[in-house]
TrEMBL record, chain A:
Protein's GO biological process: small molecule metabolic process
Entry-linked CDD domains: TPP_PFOR_porB_like
High-level lineage: Bacteria, Pseudomonadati, Candidatus Omnitrophota, Candidatus Aquitaenariimonas
Name this protein carries in UniProt: Pyruvate ferredoxin oxidoreductase
Gene3D superfamilies named among the record's database cross-references: 3.40.50.970
TrEMBL record, chain B:
Segments crossing the lipid bilayer: none
Pfam families to which the protein is assigned, alphabetical: Fer4_7
Region (Disordered): 1-20
An MF annotation (GO) of this entry: metal ion binding
PANTHER family: PYRUVATE SYNTHASE SUBUNIT PORD
Organism: Candidatus Aquitaenariimonas noxiae
Species lineage: Bacteria, Pseudomonadati, Candidatus Omnitrophota, Candidatus Aquitaenariimonas
UniProt cofactor(s): [4Fe-4S] cluster
Protein name: Pyruvate synthase
Gene3D superfamilies: 3.30.70.20
Listed Polar residues bias regions: 8-20
Entry keywords, A to Z: 4Fe-4S, Iron, Iron-sulfur, Metal-binding, Pyruvate, Repeat
Domain 4Fe-4S ferredoxin-type: 24-53, 54-83
Automatic annotation (TrEMBL), chain C:
SUPFAM superfamilies recorded: Thiamin diphosphate-binding fold (THDP-binding), TK C-terminal domain-like
Domain Pyruvate:ferredoxin oxidoreductase core: 260-362
Gene name per UniProt: porA
UniProt-recorded name of the protein: Pyruvate ferredoxin oxidoreductase
GO molecular function, one term: oxidoreductase activity, acting on the aldehyde or oxo group of donors
The organism's taxonomic lineage, starting at the top: Bacteria, Pseudomonadati, Candidatus Omnitrophota, Candidatus Aquitaenariimonas
Amino acid sequence: MTEKLITEKKLFACGHTACAGCGQSLGARLVLEAAGPNTIVTNATGCLEVFSTRYPESSWGVPWLHSLFENSAAIASGVESALKHLGKIDTIRVISQGGDGGTADIGLQALSGMMERGHDILYVCYDNEAYMNTGIQRSGLTPFDTNTTTSPAGKISSGNPLPKKNMVEICAAHRIPYAASSSVGFPLDVQSKVKKALSIRGPKYLHLHVPCPLGWRHPSNLTINIAKLAVETALFPMVEYEYGKLVSSRKLVTIKPVEEYLKPQGRFAHLFKDEKGKQEIAKIQQIANQNIEYYNLKATK
Amino acid sequence: MIKHLTSKPGSSLSNKTGSWRTEVKPKFLRKNCIGCKMCRLVCPEGCIFGDKKNTYGCDYQYCKGCGNCAVICPKKDIIMIPEGEKE
Amino acid sequence: MKEFIEGSYAIAKIIKLCKPGVISAYPITPQTHIVEGLAQIVADGELKSEFINVESEHSAASVVLGASAAGVRAYTATSSQGLLLMTEVLFNIAGMRLPLVLTCANRAISAPINIWNDHQDSVTVRDSGWIQLYAETVQEACDLHIQAYKITEDHNIQLPVMICIDGYLLTHCGEVVDMPSQGEVDKFLSPFSPLYKLDVANPITMGVLGDPDCYMETRYAIQETMKDVLKLIPKVAGDFEKAFGRLSGGLVEKYKTDDAEKILVAKGSLVGTLKDVVDDLRTKGVKIGVLKVVSHRPFPEDAIFDALKKAKYVGIVEKSISLGAYGPLYTDIKALFQGKKESPCINGFVIGLGGRDVTKESVKEIIDQISEFGPTNKFIGLKL
């Protein structure tokens, strides 16, 4: 074993109980490695909290605090305020994190408060597009037509009838210095965005797309590939906002049809059964097309 | 009486998740490796080590056998082999 | 130094003297004057503290949770719906054994919406693991806050303290208050040094998943600590008396109970009215007294037993009711006398809900009804 491995283990150690191929555990490790040891992390309730801190074991090599489902951003605000009072805010970074439900649904109010008050915190949302910890229920970030246990596909339903909430724009609308999206399909992009965010003072938001083999029903070895396909089909644009303005988006040379992303995932299997499914896929392609135009995703020659 | 449940860094190391593997595990061939580090970077367990070409390997005590390292390897230098076979 | 001051501003001044590094609150009547007072104190540079205006009471409680976990003394205040919105966080703070002080300006619970005083809010969260102390006067409210930091930050305790003060009746009441000096408070209250905190030099994981193998022990530990709190509260009150020259707080206060045949039991400012009535009746030779319960949690079983055991009749007078059952204090006191050789006849009365005036006449109505077969949860002063 090399020195580097030992350092890694100190920040986010092996032995956590995430499922094999978990995109969120990968995301958390990437974020923490990029942030380094001078970091305090607060965590919302959810898969990440459960699989990394079952007493008496913990995977965290940095000070880590979990309280409740919806208050990760609020307890982080308290930690940051305490560091300010102690005169330590210039030397210690604060990261607040949660899943899609803990961020976009139940935790949205606390997150908005954190951003509006200008706390020097990086908030990271690990978006696996449903309440996975409780058994794959629909969240505000579940994509259109996804089959979840509370938005099941059925005789008269093709899954979740509602669109995915745009969290990056919601955060950017707070005119915070930095709001961005990235994906574990692009680990170096994740780490460079974390480093960039942490170099900026004030509230920052990073939205990470993290596949869930269990909830998305894809083989565990396809986590990275599926994450890449979400970006390459323009269903998950990787973008950056500064003070409310879109400043960059990851350009795509060849934009793949959405079927390539949908097909390997069991949560979309119902769309590949009949003519109605084809029409639904056309609607999903429409969402991708809108993203291409809105975020100007096409690479110029 | 204070019963405050706090845990120490690295304490999860006592949980040997390698026992979860039922079917396959990665074998690092160390033949065509170019040292791109992608396998190490994408491992959800963080159990892959190595930093120069043909030095990579994984800690089988923790590897859950997800197979993302084998998929990402640009040189097909990591293969998934049946659990019973020798690495 | 003595000064005439409104209850809320008096508490704000006291909190300033306790020097919390983080204050967070969300406005709710009748708590507002306390946090407005503190905001002004911080704005005038008289207290070096981060004053965090949050978007809900849930976040107010969460901010002070985070601050305490990071090793800084913190403070929040709320009322009624705000306290209920905090409920989830309150249990969490106690379970994590984080030292904190919260002021609850006691107010009724909606519906119907009502901004006036009773004890339904704090009584609802009595099972949360917080120490709950009720103040009779503004002076006592002030003194209890200083004592609260001493108690919560004791390394053998590490349980949060809620100081319950009657909304309007105390928060908006002008009273002459003996305000201690900064030097006196500094001498009484050591700087905050928690048992454990978030520290990059010594990282720990706080707020873990506790499975069936370890959860129950955390609850047992709080229960055991509450016994230690029962010993510590009188000690802190004693130390306070030595340092500040007046007796304040403690577990209970006995008022003319030693030879009393009838004893009224109550919490908070209501006790003052009861004392007035008792004084009137004492001049007529009636053997009656009052037992003030300061600490509702932990429940001072032994102190209450000793104070009431020789009485013939006891009337528990409460500003709260567990709907469908009895007043919570009535239930607690009835339970402690179960199977005891010495046991008075215990009656229960509900009074003053939603700010209904508690008059001397209504107290006399209670006293008249106390008997061997008296009521268990009689509402007093109803307009039906």
